[in-house]
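To close the chapter, one final illustration. This time we ask the reader to focus less on the individual chains and more on the assembly as a whole: which components sit near each other, and how the overall shape emerges from the parts.
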Amino acid sequence: MPVQVIDGAPETLLPSHLQKVDLKYLQWGCDQANKYFQGTVILSYPLTKLVNGTEFFKIVLQENSCSKTSTINVLFFGRLADDCGKVVHQGDTMVVAGFNVAKSPSANEDDRHCCHLEVSEDAGSAVYVRGNVFICVHFFIVFFQPVAPKYTYTPLNHLKGGTIVNLYGAVKFFKPPYVSKGTDYCSVVTIVDQSNVKLTCTLFNGNLDALPKIYKIGDIVRFHRIKIREYNKQMQGITGIGFASLTFDGTVGAPIVPRTSSKSYSFTEEEQKTIEELRTWAASNLSVCGPTAKLSGIQPMLFFDLTCQLVGKAEVDGSSFLLKVWDGTKCPHPSWKVLVEESDLEGDKVLIHRLRNLIVDILVYDNHVKLAKSLKVGSFLRIYSLHTKQASAENQPDVSYVEFHLHGGTCYGRGIRVLPENNPDVKELKAFMDSVNLTESQNVESMSSMELDGIFGNLSCKSNWKLIHSLLLHKNSTGHVIFNIALKKTWSVFLSFKQKVFGRYKIHMDLLDQKTIFTYSSISQQEVPDGDDFDLILRDCAASAPNPEVHNSLWYDCEVWDTENQGQRKIAVHFVKHDELLQEPEDTLIMVQGGTLKEIRKLSRRFKCIIPVRSTKEDLELLDLSAPFLLQGKIWHYGCKQCSNQKTIQSLSSLAEEEPSWEPTEIARVLGIEPLQYVFVMKFTLDDGTGALDAYLFDYEKFFQIPASEVLTSSLLQEKMEMIMNILCPSGTKLDDLPWLECFIRSYNVKDGMEQQVCYQIFDTMVAEDVI
DNA sequence: GTTTAGGATTCG
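The assembled structure is written out below.
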């Protein structure tokens, strides 16, 4: 860089052939090769770009004389403009050599010299370095700082309104910079000094870096040019023009290194002493131990500051944002997992998976969302006044887990601050994270196995997970364990809980930690009932006649049909209205009583939703949950008998009032039904030539584009399923002729009575369809 | 050249 900031007098550093030029002798057209001009920077304009893209920087230099023409414009172009623009300050002394003199187009307006100086780094000019000074064959420029002005600092008990002062103080309270409702970042800082007087300062700046870099209560700050005024009968500090700050670690004995964004600042030995004195004073007069905690030490229902690393982030909705963080320690309580779309999650998926047992999910709200969005994954954060909240699952009040919230607002300094990598706390954290043995925490893994828990519920208890592939990785660098498929198929379809209920997996973790054995009750899994079962239930209902009392209501109309040659059987169809009007059939939900399976199937082709019902003396009611509570085309929705807390059919009217979209989850919710989800469960025997292994595959929703929810009611899909299974597992073939499958496998322990058994699961595996 | 906020937890 051809620009150098120096300490000494510039004259002593200049080559002897250069002669100083006075402005009155400066003329256009004269050779200036051996001349230099010295002046004080009285004005500098913002660094800008010319139309052609060249960097451009303009300053005004004043000669140290009093004549009227003592100022001159100096124009910098190209790299020099860029370099100078970053370091030149008003008040600097500057020496310019190697300049061109040109006529100043603005001389008439600005009353400055009729010429201006043009300075640029010519292409090809060689730069020689001699000692501290850069000398360029065509020009060189040096600056030196004016003598540091002597600052005086006002003790906090001597403040007067309407003054601008310089202050020192220990931070008693602070709000990390947050996005204000105006144009700037805001940070509120309360400082105190040996006079024991407090001053709360409200600091604004559009540039986050320009606000004091306070990380902890007890940090020491130095404020220059802060405005003092009275507010609510108290003194208040506020940013004004020229405000600048330095921040120091408040720890007694720690190195005195100022944190500042300013490139030039004065700092004397005397000031160093001031900081040491303030540190010592604060150590005994200020309670500096903030409510910090490690994840391993958190208590529910508390506010605390967390120092952590960001590993993932995702937008949840407009007013909340998810941060996935870890601090190397393990939260002792089961903690929540916030569900987001995989595609919405930013961060290294592999790392997130590896750290899954140490990561906690934090939801930040409202004003913190904007800042949270801007955070870079991988950065180190301190989250202030984070709230842990104990919550329990809706249907199991005795089962609790911890939620992490950063509520909206900035009370108690609530907010987020990025810590630099060189921060001592970050260094310590990093060292600790490096020492964490991930395999240890993975051995008691349960997080990602939550779904499996649901499936295997009644047959198993899981005590110890091991990732086989991670053990074999040392031998196989592809990260895949290769097995050959060699067994005849066995596939069936199960129903299991929806993900919401799976969220309870956290309990298992806790129980595992206590080395107790947890066994699911049989409720967590049930085989999909046969269509014939449903038909029987329907026939049973049809035996009793519909109750005419409940035929019409404000929110549905009823039609009753007689049947031919079927005795007394009547079919009652209740059409749910919206806004007191019937909707188009394809948008309509109907409640059917007395229909057979065949009739209901027929109706489900025409109407959007069907709820099979029966009538009591007072009202309609849902059938037993052995039957589907809702039919949508070919999809039959079932509810869990044990977990559902059924509400009256009247609850549906609330949905009918709004513009009803008849979402199954919404219908289930208002009816108090815990919906069940269709899952494929398949068992494969894999053989890699060295041995055979049985492994289970669980697939929600879709297996090769075949939805689990539809396969039982579609013969077409069943045929497709057969075909795929025949390709994957052709029967009666020799091992060598069987297809290869690359997949991830992991083991888990299953306890059946007293017997313990190791089982295997295929997971995270994708088989490309064109292979099939 | 103005505004923001002006310390004082918990809805999600």
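The CA atoms of residues 297 and 719 of chain A lie 55 Å apart. Residues 173-175, 179-186, 188-190, 200, 202, 204, 231-232, 234, 236, 238, 301, 303, 316-317, 319-320, 363, 365-366, 385, 387, 389, 403, 405, 407-414 of chain A lie near DNA strand B (CB under 10 Å from a C1'). With these observations in hand, you are ready for the problems at the end of the chapter.
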